[in-house]
Write a structure and sequence with these properties.
By secondary structure, the protein is an alpha/beta fold. The chain has helices at about 10-20, 40-45, 60-70, 85-95, 110-115, 135-140, 165-175, 235-240, 250-260, 265-285, 310-320, 345-360, and strands spanning about 25, 80, 100-105, 120-125, 150, 180-185, 210-215, 225-230, 290, 300-305, 325, 325, 340. Helix 10 (about 265-285) runs parallel beside helix 12.
Length: about 375
């Protein structure tokens, strides 16, 4: 596969390459809830294992109902996928993306999906000196000939969350030009003041708006693959006609429902991530040669300020200690001076800090 589309989170490959067991690897390359799955979700899976002898509910009724209540979106506006990535590729096909516009840097699957559907991609560069803020005016000036816009909020890998008012400026400009705007809110559950940032309340007002959501990150179930598309009912029905009929397995549906009901788990997650994100940010900035950027999600973008070490070398050095970080050289617009690290527990974060400090010695 083209190196441009590599991801973090390959603990199985790392285990083989490093000759370490999975328990000996600290994975900071994938931004997943450090608590792991909800205890309620694990119990629900164990109590319903016998359901694997049946085909899963193709309509995902119980899970769609739970998501409808949790996100306050009507059920007819909800479609589930085998992870958000499946939905991104389905959108590119159904919308017939000819020319998409994306910020840079951002999640690499948008470009991959559009190119896979035969389209082209233009970029609007985010300015590091401006904190990688989304430049709504520059985006709107670049809309000529565009039929789809992708925006990740909070952005991956920068971790910055934009206010709804900023994105609304782009939504309105896109509507005037009959452009679909897809806002990926995969990490929105981690954001403080989420209600000021999410565009979910605008779905019924703007038929050109599609929102992507996932239970993978906040609810710690990446192995079950559970993504959500929220948009106008006509688009939902159109995509539903071409997707695989049983694309969400029974155990994923059961775990999703249980997760969305586990309020204490959600509250504990928020407390942990808020506390450890601040600790990790301050601690990384104290390591000579590294500068972390403030973030709103459960990960931090880190700049390597010494020219004699690249992100690829730094990632390789920490990996030798069993600590995986995300080499961001595959993100367009960043180059070879940035890594991304997930926010995990204090014990794990301390291991990361020791690995980073050791890797930077002599750089």
């Amino acid at each position: 596969m083209d190196n441009e589309y590599l991801h973090g989170g390959d603990v199985f490959g790392a285990s083989r390459n490093l000759k370490r067991s999975l328990r000996e690897i600290y994975d900071f390359s994938a931004s997943i809830n450090p608590l792991g799955p909800s205890p309620a979700a694990l119990a629900a899976i164990k109590n319903n294992l016998e359901l694997i002898k049946f085909y899963p509910d193709p309509h995902c009724l119980d899970l769609r109902r739970a998501i409808s209540r949790y996100l306050n979106v009507p059920m007819e506006n909800i479609l589930l996928g085998n992870g958000a990535s499946e939905l991104i590729y389905l959108l590119a096909r159904v919308l017939g993306c000819r020319h998409a516009l994306v910020p840079a840097p951002t999640f690499i699957e948008y470009t991959a999906a559009v190119k896979g559907a035969g389209g082209t991609v233009s970029e609007v560069a985010l300015d590091e000196t401006d904190g990688f803020a989304l430049p709504a005016r520059r985006v709107n000036k670049a809309l000529r000939g565009v039929d789809v816009i992708f925006i990740c909020n909070p952005n991956n890998p920068t971790g910055r969350a934009e206010k709804q008012s900023t994105i609304k400026l782009i939504i309105e400009a896109a509507r005037e030009r009959n452009i679909t705007i897809i806002v990926d809110e995969a990490f929105m559950d981690f954001v403080n003041g989420r209600e000021q940032c999410t565009v979910l309340p605008l779905i019924e007002q703007y038929p050109n708006l599609v929102v992507l959501y996932t239970l993978t990150k906040f609810f710690g179930i990446p192995g079950l693959r559970l993504g959500v598309l929220l948009g106008n009912s006509a688009l939902v029905q159109k995509i539903n006609l071409i997707k695989d009929p049983w694309n969400v397995n029974s155990l994923a549906q059961i775990a999703g429902v249980a997760s969305l009901l586990d309020v204490s788990y959600m509250e504990e997650t928020k407390r942990l991530v808020d506390r450890e994100r601040e600790f990790l940010y301050r601690s990384i900035c104290e390591i000579p040669g590294l500068q972390a950027f403030p973030g709103d999600a459960n990960y931090l973008l880190v700049k390597i300020c010494k020219q004699r070490i690249t992100s690829t070398v730094l990632a390789a050095r920490t990996a030798q200690r069993g600590v995986l970080v995300r080499d961001c050289s595959t993100f367009r617009g960043l180059g070879s001076s940035y890594i991304r690290v997930a926010v995990r527990t204090r014990k794990e974060n301390t291991v990361l800090l020791e690995a980073l400090a050791e890797a930077m010695k002599g750089a």
